[in-house]
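Input chain follows. Return C-alpha cells only.
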Amino acid sequence: MTAVLSSDLSTILAHAANGQKAAGGEANLSDILAAVWLDRVKTLDAQIAETSSSIQNKNTYIYNLKAALRELRINRPKGATDKGKVGEIMAAGMDGKFFKVVNYIDDGLFPGSVGEDVWDQAQFDVAIEWLKTKIDLMVGESQLDMVRLQSLINKKSQSMDQLADMMNKFSKSINEALKMR
C-alpha cells in the first residue's frame, strides 16, 4: 500500500525543498520530520478505525449466525420422516430484532434448497452443517482482523516512540550547537 501524504504535509515538504518559508516561519528539519510522523500516525488511525469497524461487523454477523444455528437445532424435526417449516423459524439478532433464519442460510452458496418451506430432518442437518462452516470461516477471518488490528496499534505506538526519540535527539543537537557558540 502506498502512503498518501496529506495536503498540509505536502505543502510543508514542497516549501522546504524549495528553501521557502512555511506559513508562520521557517521550515526546519524538526517540523518536517514531525509532520511526516504525524501524517503516518493519522493514516494508521484511519486504518485502525476501519479494521475495528470490520471486526465489529463480523462479530455481529457471527452472533446472528450462531442465533440462527441455535434455532435450527431447536426446530430440527425429531424423526427421519418428520417435517419442519424452515421459513417460519425466527431468531433474535445482536440488535434485538428478529430475522428469518433462512436469510442467513440462503447466501447463493448453500448446497441445499431454500425454496422449499418444509424440510425434513436431512435438510435441516445440511443447513446446520452449512451454518457451522460459515461460523468457522467468519471466526477465522475475525481472528486475522484482530492480528491486523494489533499490528496497526503496534505500528502507531512505534511511530510515536520514534517521533519522541527523534525530537529529543534533535533538541539535544540544537542545545549542544548553542553551547558551542
